Amino acid sequence: MNRLKQAVTDFGWPRIIIFLFVVALFIGAPFVKVRVDSSFTDVFNRFGQNAVLVLALVPMVQAGCGLNFGLPVGIIAGLLGSTLAMEFGLVGWAGFLGAIGLSLPFAVAFGFAYGLLLNKVKGEEMTIAMYVGFSIVTFFAILWLLLPYSSPNMVWGYAGKGLRTTITLEGYWGLILNDFLALRIGENFRFPTGMILFVILLTVLVGFFFRSKTGTAMTAVGSNPDFARAGGVSADRMRLTSVILSTVIGAVGILVYQQSFGFIQIYNAPLFMAFPAVAALLIGGASVNKASMLNVIVGTFLFQSILTMTPSVINSILQTDMSEVIRILISNGMILYALTRKTKVTK
Amino acid sequence: MSNESPLLSFEGITKDFYGTVVLKDVSFTLGRGRILGLVGENGAGKTTLMSVLFGMPVISETGGFSGTVKLDGQAVSFRTPFDALDAGIGMVHQEFSLIPGFTTTENIVLNRESVKPNPAVEVFGERMSVLDRPKMRARAESAIGRLGVKLDPDMLVSEMPVGHKQFTEIAREINRDNVRLLVLDEPTAVLTESEAEVLLAALRNLAAQGISIIFISHRLHEVLSVCDRIVTLRDGRVVKDTDAAGVTVADVASWMVGRDVDDAGRKGAARDLPGAALEVENLWVDMPGETVRNVSFSVREGEIFGIGGLAGQGKLGIPNGIMGLYPAGGTVRLHGQAVTLDAPRAALDAGMAFVSEDRRGVGLLLDESLDWNIAFTAMQIKGEYLKTYLGGLVRLRDEKAMKALTEEYVKLLDIKCTGPKQKAKELSGGNQQKICLAKAFALRPSVLFVSEPTRGIDVGAKALVLDNLRHYNRDFGTTIVMASSELEELRSICDRVAIVDEGRIAGILPPGAPLSEFGLLMAGQKVSEEVQP
To answer: Which of A238, A229, A257 is nearest to A51 (CA)?
Structure first.
């Protein structure tokens, strides 16, 4: 009994309650004629789509830079990579991997500059990060119009220049991970094997990184920068490394998201991408200074399940079409809840 | 000399903080127009006694005190410092509580300004009255005049030399009409010698006007020169209450430090140790509150070298500066090799290790497990406790080796914990200190710096920590430099003890030297100076 109690405390009541709520939604779904199998497909798709973006937050949290509200910096790097890959006419695997390759240099450069800035504003990282995100997105909204892209699949048809707000990946690398070894059971259930494997691969890699010497130093910097300094570790360098890493994973994250979603969304789309990721991580049990791979997986799963199930179930109950309103309501409500739940470390 | 009733008397004051007795049956009296010197080591109870007098909230919040304080023969118990001020007691703190952007006059009459009425007062009340500057100035000048010093009433505090700030603060206290008793807590600590002289003269001046003064200072010669009576506190008791006449600095010093005066020299014969392990020349360290100005010393191979002195004099700055944790300059040579200052990494790479006095702030990763705490520095500096995979391509933490290391030290140092995976914050202070030692030992340093190793831990744990240090020194020949405020502790384990005063080394003594000599060094007197009769 004691062990059970301990296990429950370790896992955390908020997670258990949310989990029970998700289970209840699944049980209730058939009664209001929401198909459980297609719901599961949605949940897995959304989980894979978002998990890497949530994972991208971990390095900065561990290094004590707080929650990366500047995730759009990485996303912009990813968008540059994918639009360039399309411009160069890369399709299929070459397109997806090319997009990753093309976005990396941007991610490293942006991350470096962003990291230098964050090292100058210790203690205020999260606020500054949010405005860095807002700024870079709006700045690139101008660039998307001005940059000399010419692929007819991307630019506005009537002007022949300037990128469209949404660019379809069909014929390029849309669903390339989702369809890899995809498992089809029945008519409505598809398991996106490739995408889930890719998520697992990245999670394992990041997990191993945090078991390396550098990863250990980074965690120590987040836990107590003075301790790390007394141990001969440069806190500033570790923080910089963590920001670059976060930005790079963010860039890869948006590419995974795009291929599953089927479209590249530019202009204002990345503006609010950081919030759901942050909420998922916090719901997964992370604090502002500590996050584990388990937090990422559990948090993303719970957050995306609720986001998928609640609107469709409520919609069916109310017999109206207000799923979008409910989705916004639920997702912002969860973010609000998660941010009030954030815990601090011992000082 | 006078037969009138004393102005202030303490009768059997006893105060404990959660069971730790800090004042025990303290009784003494202070006559009108007399100056009383209150001396004692750090932690002897001086500050607590003054808090009792002033009715500081910290006293009532921790359960009050027993005994009575009498002012003018009347038992008083102030609930807040404001009551004490109203009763005519003034306090001058060590830290300046002045407003930098205001002039001398404005600071002196602050909140008691002279005002002129105007028509608006009739309508809106007192708050609309206008300052009567000429009158304020006159009052300030009269207060300055009573002090007998030269102060410009119109100078901004921010532009004053420190001495003038101190005078301004005293002038503010005596500007109150009813002031009868003035408490000065280390008023000369920030002053130069000539400024201190002027201050002391001013104090005599005030006493002649009938104001009683309690003078707290660790500069014993000043206490002797200005006070009529000297009360020495040690471990919360009054050990000596005597007239100042005929008392020497050496007497007071030994009253202050002497626990068991005969225990001197209980250590074995001085060890014969070969060449120098660490040479320090003209070291300065900019550590807030522990500034080191100019320090040179050399530590022999295999020696335990103690650094003592009162708090704030710079003894903690020395190890912190050499280890690169605070900006520092000068020359530090380890086995003849110059060590780069201002870089913790360089100091660690050179083979030095440090146990910080700030256990929770610098010494530990409170939210991480014990094995992390112990192995971290060795991993970062020496690349140990890492396992190689894929032919050297990746190196990951070797959890097994870390666990083995932690278990080894848990056994060796008798650390009470549930296992290597327990969080550091869950241990008691003494066990946390042992973790800090284990972290330093795991580096196998050639020179180990230990700063306040027994601060805030209980008596049993203290003995264990000191034993561990001694064994480590004897078994591995590790040179240890230990800074501590506890003189007894230094004398019990060190081969030589240096006393630091005002950022400089006042002298280096063998541990068997008489306590009075240590006391003199702490009081800022060179041992070479003849003790005045």
So the answer is: A257
The minimum CA-CA distance between A311 and chain B, rounded to whole Å, is 39
pLDDT, one tens digit per residue, over A65-95 is 988 999 999 999 999 999 999 999 899 899 9
Q: What is the pTM of this model?
A: 0.74
Residue spans of chain A under pLDDT 50: 345-347
**CA separation for the pair B290, B177 (Å, rounded):** 39
Quick: pLDDT tens for A33-42: 888 888 889 9
Q: What is the CATH number of the domain that holds B56?
A: 3.40.50.300
Residue A204 at interface with chain B, using a CB cutoff of 8 Å:
no
The CA distance from B13 to the nearest CA of chain A, in Å, is 36
Residues B290 and B319 in one domain: yes
Q: Both B399 and B454 in a single domain?
A: no
Cβ of B376 and A227 within 8 Å? yes
Q: How many domains does chain B have?
A: 4
Q: Domain locations in chain A?
A: 36-271
Q: Which parts of chain B have pLDDT scores under 70? A: 1-4, 19-20, 42-43, 94-95, 190, 258-270, 458-460, 525-533
Q: Are residues B434 and B456 in the same domain?
A: no
CA-to-CA dists, residue B503 to A154, B213, B309, B316, B449, angstroms: 70, 29, 10, 10, 18
Interface membership of A219 toward B (CB under 8 Å): yes
The chain A residue lying nearest B321, using CA atoms, is A230
- Partners of A223 on chain B (C-beta within 8 Å) are 365-368
Q: In this structure, are B267 and B238 located in the same domain?
A: no
CA angle B469, B473, B475 (to 5 degrees): 115
Which DSSP category does A292 fall into?
Answer: -
Question: Nearest CA of chain B to the CA of A213: how many Å?
Answer: 7
User: Inter-chain contact A227–B383, Cβ cutoff 8 Å?
Assistant: no
